[in-house]
Amino acid sequence: MVGKRCVGILFGTLLAGLGVVSGAQAQKQTPVVGVPHDWQMGFPAPYTPVMARVESLHDLLLVIITLISVFVLVLLLYVVWRFHVSRNPTPTTTTHNTVLEIAWTIIPILILVVIAIPSFRLLYYGDKAQDAALTVKVTGHQWYWSYEYPDQGNFSIDSRILPEADRLKLKPNQPRQLAVDEEMVIPANAVVRIIGTGADTMHGWTVWGFGIKKTVIPGRLNEGWIQVPKEGIYFGQCSQICGNAHAYMPIAVRVVSKDEFDKWAAEKKKAAGLMPATSVASATPPANR
Ligand SMILES: [Cu+2]
Q1: Cα of 279 from ligand 1 centre, angstroms
Q2: 177-212: per-residue pLDDT in tens?
Q3: pLDDT tens, residue by residue, 262-275
Q4: Long-range contacts of range 35-40, CB-CB < 8 Å, 24 or more positions apart?
Q5: Which residues surround ligand 1, an ion (CB under 5 A)?
Q6: Spatial CA neighbour of 203 closest among 217, 213, 193
Q7: E strands, 24-111, in order
Q8: What predicted TM-score, i.e. pTM, was given to this entire model?
Q9: How far apart are CA 280 and CA 73, in angstroms?
Q10: Domains (ranges, CATH) in the chain?
Q11: For residue 196, how far is its CA from the centre of ligand 1 (angstroms)?
C-alpha cells in the first residue's frame, strides 16, 4: 500500500513537474502576431504608425476611385440611353465646348492634388526616423538576411529559413516557409532605424503590417523606420526577385521587452567576442579614419 502511494506521489510530482516545464516553455515561446491568416481579404492589422497611415491613405483613395468609377459608369449608361439612334436620329455637329473642356482638365488636376498632398506627406513620414533609439542594418544576401546592430556593440546575425529537417517538426510559433533560425530582435515601442543594403543583388525587405518595403541595393544605403508597440513575432518575405532561392529568404522580427532585448544583445555581443559598449566608446579610433 505504502509503496503504491509512494509511486503515486512520485508519478504525480513528475506529472506536475512536466506541467511546470511545459508551461514555462509555452511562456517562453513568443507568440506569432504578424502573419497572414486564412481567408484574409484586406490589409494586415497596422502594427506600426507608418502602416496605420498607409491604411488611412488607402481608405481615402478607395473613396475617391469609387466615386470616379460610379460617375463614369452612370455617365456612360446615360449617354448610351439618351443618344441611342431611336431617341437621337440626327446627331449634333458640335465639336467644342470650352466650359466643358476646361472643367474636365481642371477637375482631374484638383483630384490629383488632393491625392498627392497626403501621399507625399506619408512618403516623407516613413522616410527618415526621428530620434531613433537604435539602428539595425539589414543586408540582403543570396539567399538570406543579415542584421547588424552598430550601436549595440556592432555584432551581426545571419537569418536563414529553417533547415529542411527542422521544417518537419515546426513549433506552434513557426509558420511553414516563414520561420527562420535567427530572428531579428528589437525592443517594443522603440523607434528603430532600418538601413538596408544588398550584398550581391537587389532584395526587398518587406514585413507585412509594418508599412515598410525597402528595396536594398548593392552600393547604396536605404533608410526607413519601424516602431512596434506589441510584443510578438512578425513575418515578411523578400519582395524583389533576387534569384532562384528568392522564395526561401523569409523575414522574421521578434519584438520583445527592453530588458529582454538588452539581455539578448549582451548575449550576442559576448558570443561574437566583442568588447562591452563602454570600452568601445572610449577606444581610440583607428588612424586612417
Ligand atoms: Cu531576396
Answers
A1: 36
A2: 899 999 999 999 999 999 999 999 999 999 989 999
A3: 999 999 988 888 76
A4: 35/175, 35/178, 35/208, 35/233, 35/234, 35/235, 36/208
A5: 203, 238, 242
A6: 217
A7: 32-34
A8: 0.77
A9: 67
A10: 49-86+100-125 (no CATH), 134-274 (2.60.40.420)
A11: 12
